[in-house]
Design goal:
Elements: H1 4-12, H2 16-22, E1 24-28, H3 30-39, E2 44-50, H4 51-56, E3 65-67, H5 69-75, E4 84-89, E5 104-109, H6 114-126, E6 131-135, H7 144-150, E7 158-162, H8 164-175, E8 178-188, H9 189-195, E9 201-206, H10 214-217, E10 222-225, H11 237-250
Parallel strand pairs: 2-3, 5-6, 5-9, 6-7, 8-9, 8-10
Antiparallel strand pairs: 1-4, 2-4
Length: 251
């Protein structure tokens, strides 16, 4: 039987401050839990399931503590809990500029929406982008809504929170990276692809409302845009990222 203190502790991990303090986060759902078991089983600290979940998933591949539906509702952030919740250790992220050489990487400048961040990470995984640099004011990777939106891709894409202007300046100096911002009035992406001969590129996606910060804009080698045919004012950050990466990888 799960104790009240344990329930309160798990629930507290819904807050960024507590996740950072304890170095732990939670995930919910069979698919994402099994992906963690497959990719990094040593990070799993505890798994909780309901009896109803076990009856439907008798082959679930990890020992788990059975708790009541009421307790699962308490520790879950979902309106309809999937019946399985894991407490997981936040892994350490190592970063070397050398790992970005001859690759396309993403930099996110002030992304606030959890769904956007999670979807962008999933898109990066789809297109083989290994590194995503996040400004320190981006929404937290381990926000439960971000994790759900990644569909497990956070396990395969390295996400680093950093002083973005400083890091981009270092990448330009140390490995000759080109920093390319996505803007409304830049050069068309096809023109950019024909002009750009650099193999080490960092593409910056700006804040949903305000775009790329002045500090990051000052480091841009190019500002690019996706030419529009219709009348929409703008694209969602995640949608823009998907179209951008598709054009880059298919060029």
């Amino acid at each position: 039987m799960i104790s009240n203190n344990t329930k309160k502790f798990i629930k507290s991990l819904q807050r960024k401050k507590k996740r950072k303090e304890h170095g732990l986060f939670t995930v919910e759902g069979r698919k994402i839990t099994e992906e963690i078991i497959k990719e990094c089983p040593e990070t799993i600290k505890a798994v909780y399931v309901t009896q109803k979940f076990l009856e439907k998933n008798s082959e679930f591949p990890i020992p788990a503590e059975v708790i009541s539906e009421k307790d699962m509702h308490y520790i879950s952030q979902m309106k309809t809990p999937p019946g399985v919740l894991a407490v997981v250790k936040i892994p350490e992220v190592s970063f070397s500029a050398q790992n970005l050489i001859n690759k396309n990487s993403l930099a996110l400048d002030g992304i606030k929406d959890p769904g956007n961040l999670g979807t962008i990470i999933r898109i990066a995984d789809w297109y083989g982008v290994e590194h995503v640099l996040c400004s320190e004011d981006c929404v937290d990777l381990y926000n439960p809504k971000v994790l759900q939106a990644t569909m497990g891709s956070f396990l395969r894409v390295k996400v680093l929170y950093t002083d973005l202007p400083e890091t981009l300046a270092d990448l330009k100096e140390k490995i000759g990276a080109h920093v390319t911002g996505t803007v409304l009035n830049g050069i068309p992406i096809q023109e950019f692809l024909q002009k750009n001969s650099c193999k080490t590129n960092v593409f910056v996606i700006g804040n949903e409302a305000f775009g790329i910060s002045k500090e990051v804009s000052a480091l841009q080698d190019y500002g690019i845009t996706l030419p529009k045919k219709g009348r929409a004012e703008s694209l969602n950050a995640a949608v823009f990222t998907a179209v951008l990466l598709d054009k880059i990888t298919c060029f």
